[in-house]
């Protein structure tokens, strides 16, 4: 019986090798499945200014971003020749390199567009949004409270 044990062991090992699946995974297939698993409509981290980077809460970072833009734009709004108060919606495009472009969502006159261009040019350096640790382009729609000096 002991003499048959090594033969039985060798036979068992040879037969069980067919049970192991040594399938080579295709890298393209793996990449495609990873791409499908990623939610491309959400960000891991919002774009942020250096002054807002200390807060860990994503909602607080977004509020700080909006407040910083509002503060920078209020200076230009003070010199705009009109007497009104309104909420103006802007589209903020932040590239993966940190370049900023702002445009109004609604129709406004050209002098107000010039105020917005000055505002976007005076903004501090922004860190781009992150997705899986990589900088990505991002577009945000933000409200700006427009107040001329008579309405403060």
Describe this structure in words.
- By secondary structure, this protein is of the alpha+beta class.
- The protein has a domain of 104 residues: Fusion Protein Consisting Of Minor Coat Protein, Glycine Rich Linker, Tola, And A His Tag, Chain: A, Domain 2 (2-Layer Sandwich), CATH 3.30.1150.
- Helix content is 38%, strand content 23%.
- Helix 3 packs across helix 4.
- The longest helix is centred in the middle third of the chain and has 20 residues.
- The model has no long low-confidence stretch (mean pLDDT 78).
Structural class: alpha+beta
Q: How many helices does DSSP assign?
A: 4
User: What's the helix-strand series?
Assistant: HHEHEEHEEEE
Q: What's the CATH architecture of one domain?
A: 2-Layer Sandwich
- Shape summary: rod-shaped
Poorly predicted runs are none
| CATH topology (fold) name of one domain | Fusion Protein Consisting Of Minor Coat Protein, Glycine Rich Linker, Tola, And A His Tag, Chain: A, Domain 2
Multimeric state of these chains? single chain
**Order of strands across the widest beta sheet?**
3-2-7
Share in β-strands: 15-25%
According to DSSP, the number of beta strands is: 7
Q: What CATH first level of one domain would be assigned?
A: Alpha Beta
First-residue to last-residue Cα separation: 101 Å
